[in-house]
Amino acid sequence: MKNSNYIINGILILAVIVLFMLQLKGGKGGVKQLETAGITTESMGSHLPIAYIRTDSLLLKYKFSIDLNNSLLKKVEDRKLAINQKADKLNKDYTDFQQKAQMNAFISQERQAQEQDKLIRQKQELDNLASQADKELSAEQVQVIQQIQDTIITALKAFNIPKKYQLILSNAGTDNILYAADDSYDITNEVLEFLNARYVPAK
Fold it and tell me: Which of 43, 121, 135, 171 to pair with 24, CA 20 to 30 A apart?
């Protein structure tokens, strides 16, 4: 996964460098190459047709992302509560078993062994339940991330029809962009407004 991210980032950086070189080169050759790529000097003005989004900031304020994450957190809390309740009952049963064993309250060794086996099975079932819950929640988390990514990409296609950016970068912290001299390349708030305006919460 990391290797594919490095490759994608490398391609994006290369694309930016090529666009900068074409812009700085000037002359008829440079203009021709830009027009071949679908970029005219009129549409560019003094800016390259490139923008970036601060995805960490976007996801914190994107209503769809907030709702999905809150829903996932509730599931985590509910399952954690259910498992903790079962664990508390098991601990109580184990304490009762120990007290009975210490006071020789069991009718026979066979009866004591049966109760002990029952507690062991309950512990195994609880461990399996916790493990299954972790797997399900991990799968749901992946699904939530994919849903958010899909809606953002779909929305960006519509957002970009009038904007005509050739490249929109994703930037979390200093992941892809270490320094941007011109804040006008940052379209995070503009995209956020567009996304939230399109979002209709589920009833």
Answer: 171
**pLDDT of 45:** 54
What the block records as the tokens of 187 is: 């379209």
**Nearest to residue 96, comparing CAs of 118, 81, 80?**
118
Q: Residue ranges of the chain with pLDDT lower than 50?
A: 1-12, 14-37, 39-44
- What pLDDT does residue 181 have? 66
**Alpha carbon 42 to chain centroid, angstroms:** 38
- φ, ψ of residue 138 in degrees (nearest 5): -65, -40
What letter represents residue 119's amino acid?
Answer: L
| Angle subtended by helix axes 188-198 and 109-163, to nearest 10 | 110
| Residue 202: partners with Cβ closer than 8 Å, 6 or more residues away | 67
64 by Cβ neighbours in 10 Å (0-12 / 13-18 / 19+) ranks as buried
